[in-house]
Amino acid sequence: MTLSWSHFRAPLSLVRTGRMAARPSTDNAMVFCVFAAGRGRVRQHDRWAELAAGTGVLIEPGEPHHRVSQTGTRCMNLRFSRELLPLHTAEISEACARSMDPTAPAMQMLSGYLDRLFEVADELTAPQRLDAGRAAIELLGMALRDVAPSAPGGDGPAAVLLDMMRRHVREHLADPDLRVEELARRHHVSVAHAYTLFGRIGTTPGAYLREERLLAARAMLSDPRYARFTTSDIAAAVGILDLSTFERAFRRQYGTTPAGWRREHLHRADHSRDRATGNAFLLKKNRCTG
Question: The CATH number of the domain where 139 resides is what?
Answer without folding.
Answer: 1.10.10.60
